[in-house]
């Protein structure tokens, strides 16, 4: 059942466009260019992104928020149909966001298991074929054993329920960039988190061939004194993945997590310099959207230029998936970091 889908989502030279910001988070994106957070503005922004001609050459899947899954373009074509015509698989964010985790060290847990089976069934009917659940782990807060266990268990329960309703689950325990720790500490925490995630995935009888992972790259904390090279990030990240992720898993689709557009692309490229047991690609939100938003500014006359900016990023990451990105001709905007301390989605 899941095999044809994976061939599409994890296909060479393509990755995922994450535009599943909740309405509140989409409001932050719009506010950054002075737009009000109205349904009309959210529709206009998603329409700009999804109707970009030729996007399907570089993008295999798009993660949507519920509102977008049921929304249409201003011409009345459903976004699901827009995606199908672009050969892009529609996906859906199914978690209900983060709340404080009592008994922890100021950490969070991810809500959304109640009613999840019936929501997944409805999303499938509406055209979604994969799902996403994002929970977070904070290194400076510990992480406590409780927070890691809760994150792993929640992801595993979600994955089992999504598969049971025909959706391929993207498993995303985001290890936040926050902190001044070195890369070795991130490696250690990532190994711990992924070992628990796979332990509970197995305990919940999740089919490993029918999931996708959305890990953070293994980098130093954003406030660490030194930056790491793409080669060092690739080495540590691949070491962690090889130690923890069975080759039965078809695809690794990284998040960008506050890296600049350029960093996210260069790091992905470094990871594809030799063959990997899994498809190693991208599922970026911020690192695909930043220069698009800056170019658009909410002005109809800028739509074309903004769509070009999206294609530039999508193509760069497509090349990085193939390991053949050179970094030539990148704009200054693409080099700007997007890390914000304590950022919440
Ligand atoms: P970023 O690439 O902005 O970290 O987004 C990841 C994500 O989970 C959104 O779907």
TrEMBL record:
Annotated pathway: Carbohydrate degradation; glycolysis; D-glyceraldehyde 3-phosphate and glycerone phosphate from D-glucose: step 4/4
Main location as per UniProt: plastid
Catalytic activity: beta-D-fructose 1,6-bisphosphate = D-glyceraldehyde 3-phosphate + dihydroxyacetone phosphate
Source taxon at top rank: Eukaryota
Keywords assigned: Chloroplast, Glycolysis, Lyase, Plastid, Schiff base
EC number(s) from the headed UniProt entry: 4.1.2.13
Top-level EC class: lyase
Annotated compartments: Plastid, Chloroplast
Cellular component per GO, a single term: chloroplast
UniProt similarity note: Belongs to the class I fructose-bisphosphate aldolase family.
NCBIfam families: FrucBisAld_I
Protein name in the entry: Fructose-bisphosphate aldolase
